[in-house]
Structures are given as C-alpha cells and as structure tokens.
Amino acid sequence: MSGNPYRSVGQRVTGQEFVGRADLLWRVRSTWDGSGLGNLSVQGFQRMGKSSLVAQAVEHDAENRPDLLFTSLSVGDHDNGPMLFQSVLRTTHEQLVSRSLASVKPYLPVLDGIVAQAKGIEDDGELRDQVKTYYRHLTNAGVSTIVVLDEFDRADGVFTKLSEFQVLRSLASERFSIGLVTVSRRPVENIEIDAAGGSTLDAVLSLRCDVGCFADKEIDLLLARALQAGVDLSEHRAALIKCAGGHPYLLSLLCHEVMQIHQQSGRIDVPAARRALAGQFESQFRGLVKTLDTVSGRRGEYLLRKVAGDDAGSLPNADVDLLTRLGLVREEAGVIRLFSDEFQQYVLRTTSVM
Ligand SMILES: Nc1ncnc2c1ncn2[C@@H]1O[C@H](COP(=O)(O)OP(=O)(O)OP(=O)(O)O)[C@@H](O)[C@H]1O
Ligand SMILES: [Mg+2]
C-alpha cells in the first residue's frame, strides 16, 4: 500500500509535493535574479501557502548560486530584536563557512570576529553597525545574502522599539548586499504601526507578492497527486471545491481525509471526510474573517456578508480588489463569489446583515 500523498498537509511543502504557483515563484525569484538584490513583502491570509512558496523559490536557487546565501528565519522563534539580528548574522555565517568559497577565505578571520563580537551586543545602533560591516565585507568577497523573515506578523511583539524596524530598513536599503523578503499575513505597514506608531519599513518593502487561493489548473494538479495512490479524484472535484474551493490548506486537508477513508474502506466519501474535519474548517473560516477584519479597518464581516449575499456589485471597486487580491473571492461568469460555497454558508450563518 502506498502512503497518503497528502500526508505533509500542514507542513511547509517543497519539491515534488509543491504544486503550481509558476507566476508567483517567478515573482519571488526575481528578487534575487538579477545584478542587484531587491526586497519583497510576501503577503497572504492564513495557510494560503506563503511559507511553502518562498521555501520552494529558495530551494530552486540555493544550489545553483554559490555567490548567494539564503538566510531563512522565523521571527516568532526569537524573543527580541537583538536576538533576531544576532541570529541573522550567525545563520548567514554558518552557511558561508559551509560553502568554503575560495574568494571568501581571506575575509573569514574578520567575519568570524564580527560574529563573535555581535553576540553580546544589545544596543540597536551598535548591532546595526556590526551587521552592516559584516555584510559589507561579504559583498567585497563577492557574496550576497537574501534574508527571509517568515512569520513577520510576530515582529510586532519581538520588536519593541521603532529603532529595531529601522535597523531592518537600514539593512534592506543596502541594495547590493542584502535582499529582504518578509512573509506575513498582514501588510507590513499594519504590523509596524501596531508596534511603534509609524511606518519606516514600508518604503523599502514596496514590492509585494500576494498569495491567495489556487487557480483551477493548480486545483487539478493538487487532486492529481491522489493518482500516486491509484485514486482518481477528478470526478469528485466539484464536491471537494464546494467545501474548500482553491484554499491550499483546506483542500489538501480534505483530500488527505478522503484518502484516509479510502484506505480504510475502499470508498470515496467526501461528505464523511468533511464531517470529520468540521472543527478545522470552522476554525480556518473564523481566522479568515478575523484577519480580514484586521486588514480592512474592522469591515471584514460587512464585506464578506455583501459578497455572500450576492451583492458584491454594490461594493466600491477598491473593496472588491482587496478581496480578490487576498484570494477570498473568485469571479464566476461575471459574478463575484466567495472562494467556496461552504465559506459562503459560514459567512451567512455567523454574520448579521448590516
Ligand atoms: N504550492 C503548494 N502545493 C501543495 N500544497 C500546498 C501549496 N501551498 C500550500 N499548500 C498546502 O497548504 C498548507 C499551508 O501552506 P503554508 O504553511 O506554506 O502556508 P502559510 O501561508 O505559510 O501559512 P501560515 O499563514 O500559517 O504561515 C501546506 O501545509 C500544504 O498542505
Ligand atoms: Mg507560513
């Protein structure tokens, strides 16, 4: 018996398990695919596939670019700003040492020294200078670095001072040595304002990549993964989409459950799989509404209710654009609808007419 092809659901997926996203991959990779490095803010609602997208893009190029290091960290793994910056430095340095590039050898003693010295520094300004000096030496040695900060939403707790965002801004402004990629559910401006009452980072992270639901072709690719276990889900496509739409996580979760049931009983039973996942669907739907509320100035329920009630036409274009960009709605024969029928029912059930 082959295993469940969807067993990685919930984890960051890369390699063979990663489906679609060709345009977005290109967009992320173009941050480092040229002479100088750029900066990018990858944004999308919970579980839309942001971390997987960036990890896949990095995996694509990590091996074939000896002159480029990828330092990927999760902001949430750090207690405070200085710890995060020290971690950025340490991780970059570990990779550099493991590459043993001839061009870097002469610079290693001084780089080793900076990393050791930065260890105990708490002061933002001093730390920034050390980090900048480190990356400047690295640039002289012909090596650049992409710093990926995942779960950037957590920066509003990890950074407690505006000056810490300024350190990041200052690093990201060093165009030719560091490229900064942040990954978050909320816009950077929103995260930064929460923390410090003013946006410094937004300007350097003006390029954005929005990650929403899968398009039709990507849905087909995800369902086709079941063929590895000899199961054809294509005739159950409509039933699966009704529940999960093209939401990468919910659709993967549902396919996983369908395959589990199939392995036990030999039957494809989408409604039974959906019943088994009632709690998870409910909590994801709730999370989407909550995040939309946060990013739309507490208008989330109102906007969703309008679309769920087939009244998207009365919304200003800017609101429809926002919902489209976030991947919460799709257009069907000229009508704007929520990404799945079940999400629509959830919205109608849990929100009131305003
Ligand atoms: N391109 C993809 N191919 C296959 N499955 C995917 C893809 N993108 C996302 N998924 C599915 O969605 C799940 C969530 O993906 P991921 O963790 O990358 O999302 P995220 O947006 O980073 O979530 P969070 O907001 O919680 O950080 C994955 O575990 C996987 O099951
Ligand atoms: Mg993530």
Structure overview:
- The chain has 354 residues and is of the alpha/beta class.
- The protein has 3 domains: 190 residues, P-loop containing nucleotide triphosphate hydrolases (Rossmann fold, 3-Layer(aba) Sandwich), CATH 3.40.50; 61 residues; 69 residues, no CATH class.
- The chain is built from 16 helices and 7 strands.
- The strands form 2 sheets. The chain has a 5-stranded parallel sheet, sandwiched between helices. A two-stranded antiparallel ribbon has the order 6-7.
- β6 and β7 form a beta hairpin.
- The N and C termini lie far apart (53 Å).
- The structure holds adenosine-5'-triphosphate and magnesium ion (MG).
- The site of magnesium ion has 3 residues, from α2.
- Magnesium ion binds next to α2.
Strand sequence of the main sheet, in spatial order?
A: 2-3-4-1-5
| Coarse structural class | alpha/beta
For this structure, the CATH topology of the largest domain is Rossmann fold
Average pLDDT works out at 92
Main beta sheet strand tally, sense and closure? 5 strands, parallel
Strand content: 5-15%
Compute the number of strand runs: 7
**Helical segment count:** 16
CATH C-level of the largest domain: Alpha Beta
Number of domains: 3
Shape: globular
**What's the end-to-end separation, in Å?**
53 Å
Radius of gyration: 22 Å
Helix content: 40-55%
List SSEs in N-to-C order.
HEHEHHHEHHEHEHHHHHHHEEH
Low-confidence stretches: none
Which CATH architecture of the largest domain? 3-Layer(aba) Sandwich
Instruction: Output the CATH homologous superfamily of the largest domain.
Output: P-loop containing nucleotide triphosphate hydrolases
Ligands, ions, cofactors? adenosine-5'-triphosphate, magnesium ion
